[in-house]
Automatic annotation (TrEMBL):
Domain Integrase zinc-binding: 4-45
InterPro entries hit by this protein: Integrase_H2C2 (IPR041588), Retrovirus_Pol_polyprotein (IPR050951)
Native species: Ridgeia piscesae (Tubeworm)
Coiled coil: none
Alphabetical list of PANTHER family matching this protein: CCHC-TYPE DOMAIN-CONTAINING PROTEIN (PTHR37984:SF8), PROTEIN CBG26694 (PTHR37984)
Transmembrane segments: none
Protein name from the UniProt record: Integrase zinc-binding domain-containing protein
């Protein structure tokens, strides 16, 4: 049963979560961490890019003081979305 937890090479956290749902054995966390850290496949495909730090922005005092816009395509059509940072209201329109 232990081997089934390791299948898929899904990383330490996902393997631990999966194991906790399926089974328990003494020193389970230590065993899984050791297996994943020494697994050649896991080492080859490990995600190495560090997480980007969060950038905090100030919330405006009044509506309309600060906003944002973004362009995107969906189902072959181009759209623009404009958002107000104060209340989170947005407007969506075709281009």
């Amino acid at each position: 049963m232990k081997e089934n937890v390791y299948l898929g090479h899904i990383g330490i956290n996902s393997s631990l979560r999966r194991a906790r749902d399926l089974i328990y054995w003494p020193q389970m966390s230590t065993d899984i961490r050791h297996y994943v850290e020494t697994c050649g496949v896991c080492a080859t495909y490990a995600y190495r890019q560090p997480a980007e730090s969060m950038v905090m922005t100030e919330t405006p005092d009044l509506p309309g003081q600060k906003g944002g816009a973004d362009l995107f395509s969906w189902s072959g059509r181009d759209y623009v979305v404009i958002a107000d940072y104060h209340g989170g209201f947005f407007k969506l329109d075709y281009l």
